[in-house]
Queue: 2 jobs
Job 1
Amino acid sequence: MDTLLLSRIQFGANISFHILFPTITIALGWVLLFFKLRFNATGDKKWMEAYLFWVKVFALSFAMGVVSGITMSFQFGTNWPGFMERVGNIAGPLLAYEVLTAFFLEAVFLGIMLFGASRVPNWLHTTATFLVAFGTTMSAFWILVLNSWMHTPAGYEIRDGIAFATDWVAIIFNPSMPYRLAHMLLASGLTVAFLIAGISALRMIWGDRQESVKSALRVGIILAAGLIPIQIFAGDMHGLNTLEHQPQKVAAMEGNWDTQSNVPLLLFALPDEEARENRFEIGIPNGASLILKHKADGVVPGLNDFVAEDGTPEHPPVAPVFWSFRIMVGTGMAMLALAWTGAYFLRRRGAGFMPKPMLFAFAAMAFSGWIATLAGWYTTEIGRQPWLVQGVLTTKEAVAAVPAPIVMATLVAYLVVYVALILAYMGTITYLAWKASKGEPLSTRQYPRSGEAEVIAVPGE
Amino acid sequence: MDMFNDPNLWLPWVFAALMGLSILIYVILDGFDLGVGLLMPLSDDDEKDRLVASIGPFWDANETWLVLAIGLLLVAFPVAHGVILTALYLPVAVMLIGLILRGVSFEFRAKAPIGQKPYWNGAFFTGSLMASMAQGFMLGMYVMGLTWTLPHVAFALLTAVFLTVGYSCIGAAWLIAKTEGALQIKAVGWAKGGLWGLLLGIAAISLATPFISPRIFEKWFGFPQLLYLAPFPVLSAALLGFLWWKLRRMPMVDDRHAWTPFAAIMALFALSFGGMAYSFYPYVVPDKLTIYEAASAPESLMIILIGTLFVLPTILAYTALSYIIFRGKATELRYD
């Protein structure tokens, strides 16, 4: 394998590993704030217990996110020096603002949020929780601004091959940013909703009947059931935005070779790039035309429009985009079915009396958000190839001339570490749940937290 | 004062200064928490928990200074970023894997089943060692002009050892300030044992730098600059002497002066860093690329600078707040 492919795999592996954890911390921060505010308002201990359990998951996820994020910032230079040389004038300030406005905020207040509860007043602890949640969201904002700019660049001009910023408002609010940001924040919300519902279901399977677990399950299911239709709508809007700005990506997502009307929605196919056709197609007639153009004879762009004179394709590799997209949509549909069935039983029977099969289904889907998120990112990022910045810079131009064996060696080292850590992470969360469901106290604290004594006194009213 | 009229001249300078400041803060702050990680194998199980507790609320924010430093290199001097990081591809990878290992071990050792704890302690030490050695190695390679020849690599391996021992020394000095009792007495011993790393590290770089580059030799040993540069070596020697003298008298009655070794080592790091900055200025890639040649477009730098001027004081303020909240001797880490 050559350096370009190896570098792509390496960066892909790093960023895939990284995104798993911010996806959790972005939304989990807000859920923790919700638990904390419920506790402040009601004084009900179950909310504090839920907080104390999930803050551990948050701390673990945050650490995983921080260390894998540091890797990212170095790999721009080690593997993709051309990226910063050519578009650094735009990417640089966006990354700088991420570090300055978000990264420090999260990192510093995380210490107070995690370990400061008995050292600072309650309001400051709640504020720290808010600032951490706010920081993770700001971080996502700046990163998605940059990522969206790479898909739909705006507000720049090229002088001597180098991009210069001309309009920062246009750069930040580039055409795909609002859609991508909404899609990702909702993905984070769904990932966390299913994680909370899944782990809480697992604890109930293990016989844990604590109020905090029931409440967490309820929060998880309601969040999931509420967000999933919004996400499907946002995803559809994002798809239409992509159709406008990156038609070749949509063509690959649909597996559509020729620009034509009445394009079917393919449920299954094996795209063959050599023969430039699909094998074993199974599709719903007019489906893709209906979704993308809202009429049965709508014209959908085809991949064959994106081939250079000499026959080299100028569209992304078809099969990975086609399949990632289907995995994402399939997972989303499974989430919709489960979340709404769950909401139905929640309403009929209550969180404490969910049928066993429902609990098993939620436990099985605890990490389903990861699958959908990764599949979605693969769709959009592989779908941008061969470009690194759409129409401005190709991936090939940006890669570093590091010998392939060195890239290979470091890639293997990263992969070994990542696989071990993902297993340890999932194992540890399961272990924490098991320990908590066996009644091991979350807190062995003997003294009241500052502010707690007054709060506890309130519910008598 | 013409310099201030032309942003092409003063912006790169300002960003080089900001980047230097970030690197210095990083080396001091993550230096002490990497150092504490290096001391893990020397302590017993109970002490290990206190070692970790002493850096628990801080390490995350400490590491953020590395992200800021590398971020500033990335955004202000993109060409240099590419040249330096591709030249240091392998040590960077070693450092990153080290930082990953230690960052996550921190969490796992407290949350995974108790039977796994020794392994995560081991990973915490290994990660700290990999990161420290890699940073020392990169420092040596940078001084040698980023060329991979056998003598350069040998020198870099030496600086790797010295910096690692130096980190263990500042880590021990941090523990003197943050612990008490038997552990504090142990920490005094560790700090004494680490002084040679500081001494040899500073000596090696101070001697090697001018002899590698005639330009740097001229900057230091020409006249009259030799006179006004004299405080650098004189103060460094005085600080080392003070540390050696002070550590033999620690811990003192009523825990007096528990902070002085840490403060002295901070000053030593700052002086050494200042000396290196003087040597290499105006080059960002030694003797190849100046900060002026490598700088980004002024309009992009300006927009970062405006943000930085607002945000950096805020960051420093809330970092200070966190150090104030978690002041005093380290106690058990808990979430409630």
Job 2
Amino acid sequence: MAVFNLKDREIQCKVVYYGPGRCGKTTNLEYIFKAYKKQIKGDMVSINTEGDRTLFFDFLPMNLGKINGCDVKVQLFTVPGQVQYKSTRKLVLKGVDGIVFVADSLDVRREKNMLALKDLQQNLKSYDLNIFKIPIVIQYNKRDLEKEGIPLMSCEKMEKDLNRQLKAPSFAASAFSGQGVGKTLQSCLNLTLKHLHKQFNWADK
Amino acid sequence: MNKMIKGILKQAELYKSQGLLKEAEQQLKKIETFIQTNDKIKNKEKLLKGIAYKIKVLNDDVKKFEKESKKTETSPGVNKIIKNLFSTAFATEGDEADKDAAQLEGAIALFKFGQFDSALTEFDQLLNSEKHSVISAKNIIKCLVEQDKVNTAVTRFFKWHTESFFSSEQLTDIRSFTENLFEKKKLDRDLLLTGAGIDNISNNIDCSEKEDKEYEDFIDISSIGISFSENAITNEDIELDVSFQTGNVISIIISSKDNQVIDKLKVGVKLENVQYYSPVAIFKGSGTVSAKTKIQSGPKKGDYSLDIKVENM
């Protein structure tokens, strides 16, 4: 749920990185934290991680600067991907304005991707949000592993699996190297801010 | 053949490095089966031993992760971050922020992240908030049940009852919520009907059928008269209304102004001459003071809640 401060002409919105466990959500945020230092307005906070698994969530605050005269702030969150943390995912998703769905390109994770997308749809529905209407982009992560000879799904196959109906903007990426991370975020922010503008006309006020 | 085995091993190693432990195990088992069923492979036993060791290490990692995942206590600093990030009221601070509403949202977030002790502290503070006291009480019950402290949850409920902390409508609401929660968690709902928990909850949690029957059969007492036959404080007897009754234990409230009576009625004191007034008759008997609690909050703050066990009536 975006927060508007009309007096100070400030808008704050929430973008959540969603996806199956170990797909690279935290790695996305870590790359953003390193690569977009100018826009980062605080530390990246990782709440309760076991090894490098997220048990609660990661949080990264960004400041996009002035857009149409409004100071735009973004809160980036990740959810824990493991199936058993459903209630935590739901809580983190509360008040979401835009979603980056990070899909794992590894062949062995095909089913987990589809289950995670279904889980997202259900959790959004519980907040009366429609997955077809909310700003969402899809990222096909771990593309760099193709070079290592690890079996990956093709982006076309993943499009069929995950994006046939959604028809969301999608990006091949490697959060590890940073390839495609910026494009994914930029696309999601564009969609989110346009959506909020349609809803609230914030840029004209 | 070697190339194929090496390829699958590489996949297993990569999955392991990515934290995909089950997928790594599947790859190793694939190689294990392949080696077992293929007689052309040299050093078969040595290879199988090596793979079995790798599978064991993976299984140990899975167990370790599952064990560690259950430890979810976070630091006060982290709890503060959780409260701030998951409370929309905080985000609008400076406008018309309702601090209590923000605290409530933060406490609920702490609860949902499994930080029950911290959440309890917040909900306890919110009990004094007129607007949020009932929802806080419900969440206190929920926290205690989640922590497997069912006895404490029942005690808290009856404490609110005896202290008249909530109105009867509010109490009915909290009771109904608690009953539903107990039903959902497959806990004994009768705990709330019999009032187990008011005296010595740890002993009462497994009330026998006999005790339950005794509770059901015990006559309703609306007020009592106590005569201090020996060491009389005053020349007159005192009469007090019963605020709550569970079986043969009655609760009365004594005003903080009645210092002498409060001092006299210590826990364990035997009252030899008590008149028990019921809607049908007056009974004479004795009783023992079984609990004495100073009311900490609510309209009767400072007064004392006293439990008296009815005897020889």
